[in-house]
Fold each of these.
Amino acid sequence: MVLTRRLRLLSILAVTTVAGFAAAAPAPPAPTPAKSTSQQRDEVSITVYNQNFGLVREVRTIDLPTGRAALEFADVTQQIQPETVSIKALTGNLHVLEQNYRYDLLSPQKLLEKYVGKHVKVYRYNEKTGTEEAFDAEVLSVAQGTVMRINGEITYNFPGRIAFPEVPSNLIAKPSLVWMLDGGQARQKIEVTYLTANLNWNADYVFVINDTHTSGDLTGWVTLNNTTGTSYENAKLKLVAGDVQRVQAQGYGRGSSYPAATASAPARPQFHEEGLFEYHLYTLERPTSLLTSEQKQVTLLEAQGVHVDKHLIFFGAEYYYRGQYGQVVSNQKVGVYLDVENKETNHMGMPLPKGTVRVYMADKSGAKQFIGEDTIDHTPRDEKIRIKMGDAFDVVGDRKQMDYKIFGSCTSESTWEISLRNHKDTATEVEVYEPVGGDWELISQSHPSTKKDAHTFTFKPNIPARGEVKITYKVRVKWC
């Protein structure tokens, strides 16, 4: 009976031991994934948004083992958003079982980190023998300098070059997507799309006006910047202009400020423009290469003989009418503006992306000089563009409060004198903008005025050469 129990116990121990060995047995190594690089690209297209991101679409032909297989999709950008990746089979059947984004990139520091607890070779040059001496070393730590065990001693920052037996399999030279796929055939064509940061474009405009400030030639440039770490050769390029809602806001860059030469005749537009949802899409009608760490400029538009309206504007302020000031400002600057109608009748009419307009004008010798710049927002066709050029040098103004009376708790009457002085040898027209809050009424005025809107009235006097014009008016204001 005792012998039977012992035999049963030994049998249980044997079964338990075998089961333990089976559980502890290492899993079979993962199959080496098939690799697809940019050399297998059949087609690539890029849609760049002027909010520092882009959409990449690639078509590649891949070779896979039938059934389940791993695929390393290399040469994606370092700024890819893995959660936006979409893969689709254009030929055959393909199912994605798992996706991994590998971005542990190969570098000297990463190599050392992967070899902590392992042995490497350290070679140090011996000046006496003129040869390199080899030392077997164990890497102990790389946290704050390299700590090694060499010949039984612990040392740090040992001089010499380090040689590694191999590159660890979990270090890669470039970021890659790795998929576990289930496909029905070995050779397939797939389409992969994803969003990436650090693709950006902006518009820059060069506007050369004539000496009478009445017309000019406008050239629009598209400036593209690719800092994704990946190059795209012979790509189909599209640009989206508009304020696209994103969860995380993106940056905005600036482009080149070099003036373009004025062409003798407008060239054929390189971009085809069309509406896209509530935005505008511009498609370059030829392939182009967008290399990494490259800035590229492409002509967006050319328009000649664009009519310009020049305005000199003297601005007031709403708070002037709610207190007693005396002389408010002296020698106040007069702003200079250029207005352009974005219409086909004005040789334009294309929806203009936001950007910077830089204005040039030839001096008496014929050399072009820079005279101002301003930013414009996205401008639809048939809308007006206003460019702030700066402040006039020879036209200045003063503003005085001549009288101020209060009626009740929130009503006042004030009398004003505006003096505008023109020091140029030619007459000039100045627009005086007077913003008023609350309920207002002009009681008297020395010059005719125009009510622009519910809170603004204007004067438009013509000031003679080297002359002065004084405007006086009385206004009653009620603000409660």
Note: The first strand starts at residue 34 and ends at 36.
Amino acid sequence: MDLSIEGKRALVTGGSGGIGVETIRLLQEAGVEVLATDVDQDALEPVAEEFGIRGVAADLSSSKGVTSFIEQVGTGFDIWVHAAGVTGAKGDPLEMSEEDWDHAFAIDFLSGVRLARHLCPPMIERGWGRVVFVTSENVAQPYPEETVYNAAKSALLSFSKSVAMAHSGKGLLVNCVAPAFIETPMTDGMMDKRAKEEGTSKEEAIESFLAEERPYLVLKRRGRAEEVAPVIALLCSARASFVTGANWRVDGGAVGSINV
């Protein structure tokens, strides 16, 4: 399918992660000029080399870090995919510390808010823009041991809906994509930790996690980044010109409720 976005410029945050890399691949194939960012320049280098793009490391967890990043790269982007995020601290919701909450909200929520202040107004002025925030299944089906992540990603979803309602009539379309248990470095870390705690292999840890923690994930496996990226790419395209304010699940059935 021709996405009709050739010649557009895109920013992909979380650009060294699995979903970020696959999104870059599809956008570049569609003729988009892509700039990638992530917190670690060393992790960005292989991505920049593979795709022949610019990779700029940035700490988006603070206002100062976002401002510094924008000073380096400018605001001339037509497309922005915000895939930066962390799982945050896990445990009893009532035992999460102030630092746990601050960490999750700074990276998973406020990074998006702060970048939006810089990137969205120019899109509105030009009358064309696409923003896709990567949320999570957790916004629809929260898990008690992941409460800081639940709340931060839910806040991001609410923010995206508000921006879409306020500005979509001006050409800025804002949507979210909600993956579930995707094969990425983030979930690799989760499963490595689970395997160590249970004294099992990583494969066994994944199997027990699916059975015990994700009973509705009917495909019975982790998703792949290349299964999420096409949905993101579609929402970045001219083809999705009547879609805004939505949260598209790519979850293998992990959310038990009907999406209405």
Note: The domain at 9-250 is CATH 3.40.50.720 (Rossmann fold).
Amino acid sequence: MHSRTLAIAVAVVIAAEACCCCTALGGPEPPYPIVPSQAAIDELNQRMESPHVAEGDDGLVYFSIYMTEEEATSLLVDQLEGEAQPSMIEQPQIHFRDGRIEVYLTVMLSEQLPLPVMVALTPATAGDDITLTLAEIIVGPLPLPEALVGGLGEMVSDTVRDTLAHSLEGAEITELQVDDGRLVLFFRANPDDL
């Protein structure tokens, strides 16, 4: 997963070089600050350990777990801090709003050149497959061209889907819903696998 994160950061840096003359003009900012904490991670882990399970007619069990913006941001910060190499990403924040997952961060091209970035993903369910479509990327003051957004979209979608797939061992994510302030994950599982 580290190589995918690095590939995304490199793609953002390349895009930034294309609009480097404009980076001093500003860029996307989160709508409000989110402060990460270990307490938020602990609260999410506690919810994941004891979900409310309902049995279906098909012999499978179904349940849902929600994740707040503070919990998602705390998980991302914890993951970045756990990487062996120093990250170029600073001040990441994840916001759930307007049916999208919006990730705000600062890419440090150098100490003198912080580059604000916003990546917006739109979740959808197609049959048994969860897709995360890259809706928008803004680097500095400008959105990226559609061709670059499409290519990065598949990479980001695969990375997030892989992360979510490992969020609860033995269960399969069947749906994602973005409410204002939280992401709701719906699961199904064989009772013997939990």
Note: The chain has one domain: 2-193.
Amino acid sequence: MIPYLNTTTIFRNNKLKSAIIIGLFYFIIFQVSCTTVAQPKGGAVGIINENTLYTNTSTGEIRALDILSGEEKYKPRWPSPEEVSIDKKLDKEDQKYRSLAIYGAPVIWKEGLYIVTYDGYLFKLSLELVEEWREPIGQITSSNNSFIATPQIKNGVLLIGSSDNTLIAFDVENRSKKWTFKTDGPIWSSVFISEDQIYFTSLDKYIYSLDFEDGSLIWKFKTNGAIVSSPIVHENKLYVGSFDRILYAIDSKSGNELWKFENSKNWYWATPAVHEKYLFAASLDGKLYALDINSGKLLWSSSTEGKIVGTPAIVDDLIVIASTDKKIRLLRLIDGQQMDICNIGDQIKSDVISTNEWIFFTTEDSVRALKIKPNGNMDEEWDGGHFFKEENPISNSRVRSC
């Protein structure tokens, strides 16, 4: 998940369009104050490992929550006061651009938790949130060089793109860069890895496929708009949406277009979701489109009263979507019939992630857990949610939303 840019104007001049998009992005994520230094805020739900949800807060902390109770499992949280003090000892030039804010979710490999901060530091933590090492993987010389996406890892190689137009492959065992690949625009999407090929998108309007081992270009496909959505590959077909309001299906081996869906009235931000014969595409026009995965034919659609920013979650024969209208909806996969709806009371711009009958998502200040009952209803758990800014994140007095 990447942070959401709330603008709908389409600019005809490509250079002007890119400059304004990037400028608005940085204006939004930096909370400007007359008396304090602006700091970006993070925004991913996190990652589930067995019975633990590792989530990052809006202020750059990592918390490990028990998925049944929402209680924190390990303290001190990361970063501890000792770790924060290390950052304060950096020289003034590095300190100028330092930020522990985390936009992408952590990734787990061999009992290690890896996170990339907004300013380009890669941290390895134990699953108990003890820091083991840190390495700068980006050049911290400008606020324009930032890391937005969730990293991906395979065979000890971590892959992540940056806003300085670079995809980085970093060997976490040798703690060194393996290769880099340059595009003509910022990379906000996460990489999708399939066999020996990797796939990602860029604001330069291209979808890229590279060789996993050496980063050489296999193919690239141009759309008519900037792309921030992360692609998904299923049975040798790649699916991704663009700011040109088109959802593309592409042969993942050759890069040839198979079909495209052009009914959306706004941009695509979320990664599509796949289930058997269905492809689900969530759009900023507030609709979830259910398509035939082989032809792109529209099977059904469901509307919300806001924008669908995050990727939906599929749970058995149901799909869960979250919207900026502050509501979570539970729909049937087969026809989109609404089974339940829950008004959370806060805008939801994150992905929805799931494990068994549990679903998780974040608002600006909280991470929430809902449980899908056998009768198709959703109940909020954790006594109303885990709120990042509260001293005691679980409040027994808080009214559950559903």
Note: Residues 14-315 form a domain with the Methylamine Dehydrogenase; Chain H fold (CATH 2.130.10.10).
